[in-house]
Amino acid sequence: MVEELVTAGVSVAAAGVVYVMAAARVVKQYERGVVFRLGRLRSSLRGPGFTMIVPGVDRLRKVNLQIVTMPVPAQEGITRDNVTVRVDAVVYFKVVEADKAVVNVEDYRFAVSQMAQTSLRSIIGKSDLDDLLSNREKLNQGLELMIDSPAVGWGVQIDRVEIKDVSLPETMKRSMARQAEADRERRARIINADAELQASKKLAEAAHQMADEPAALQLRLLQTVVAVAAEKNSTLVLPFPVELLRFLERATPHASQTSYTPEAEQEQGAQRTPVTPRVPETQAVLQAALQQVQQQLQRGAGVPESGAAPSEFGAGTAESGTPGANSRQD
């Protein structure tokens, strides 16, 4: 009898241990337990720690409340300004209502991933290339709103969305590089032109100052000679100011307008070059010769009248055909 009682007690104890082991559950701090009793959702969620369920009747499902980092695969699309790009992003989200995340959506991770890819492609089509490259904060906010709107009904909260990289075609990269180079070259030319303008103004002021003080030009010339000679060069290039030439031109008297004679050469004892007559005298001589030729053509003989001096250009041809005749045959 005693043995039967002991055996029954051991059996009950063993059954109790098995029941406790089957009913015992442990929920971690970052998890929440959703209990289904006979397929129906229990209103109360199981918090972290030790909890018990009815074996065979209840089913406990744990939901992670930590922030999930999900990369969005690179999506290829065409921007609003017709540029083909590949954009990838990353989504940070967490579950705030465990019961909705289990009941309202089959797999909230997959749903968020698909919604992120669709929203990313939509953002690419609505944006320009410059916005994708420089105005990412605004695009991140728009993308976050597009994903968060349907995720609210799933018990999921989108923490933030970040666009990681924008891949451009090689031709577009070269075009952008050329554009940047052209812009920098334009700015360099503007800076150089501004420097030339300022330098020209300073040089003009210096020129006016030297014009008032002629000695300043000579001092500047000596400074230039000293600067060139400091390099210990074998050849010294000496600049000759144009103002000095003008000074010499004003100081030199005008030469004689007539040709030099042998007597003048003997008196002066130097070789001289004949000076060209003045323009008015040359015009007078040409006009006189032209009048003589016209008179000869009117008479039809080609020679001047008797007693007239022959022209400087020589007598014409007579009617007899003898060149250079001084009288006309009757």
The rounded distance between the terminal residues' Cα atoms is 196 Å
Give the SSE order as H and E letters. HEEEEEEEHHHHEHHHHH
Shape type: elongated
Percentage of residues in helical conformation: 40-55%
Question: What integer value in Å does the Rg equal?
Answer: 56 Å
**Oligomer type:** single chain
Number of strands: 8
Strand order, largest beta sheet: 3-2-5
CATH architecture of the domain at 68-168: 2-Layer Sandwich
Parts with pLDDT < 50 across at least 5 consecutive residues: 255-261, 268-279, 301-330
- Structural class label: alpha+beta
Average of the residue pLDDT scores: 76
**Annotated CATH homologous superfamily of the domain at 68-168:** Band 7 domain
For this structure, what is the CATH class of the domain at 68-168? Answer: Alpha Beta
